[in-house]
Amino acid sequence: MRFAPMTRAWAQEIAAWRYPGFYAVYNLGEDSLPELLEGRYAAALGEDGELRGFCCWGAAAQVPAAARQGLYPEGWLDIGLGRRPQDCGQGSGAAFVREVLAFAGRQAPGRPLRLTVMEANLRARKAYAACGFAEGASFVTPEGVAFLLMTAEPRSTECCAQRERSPMERQAKHVYESRTEQIQILMPGHINGARRLFGGRLMEWIDVVAAVTARRHAASDVTTASVDRLVFEAPALVNSTIILQGQVTYVGRTSMEVRVDTFVEALDGRRDRVNRAYLVLVALGEDGAPREVPRLLLDTEEERREWEAGKRRRDLRLQRQQEAF
Ligand SMILES: CC(C)(COP(=O)(O)OP(=O)(O)OC[C@H]1O[C@@H](n2cnc3c(N)ncnc32)[C@H](O)[C@@H]1OP(=O)(O)O)[C@@H](O)C(=O)NCCC(=O)NCCS
Question: Which of 187, 197, 207, 285 is the most buried (most CB within 10 A)?
Answer without folding.
Answer: 197
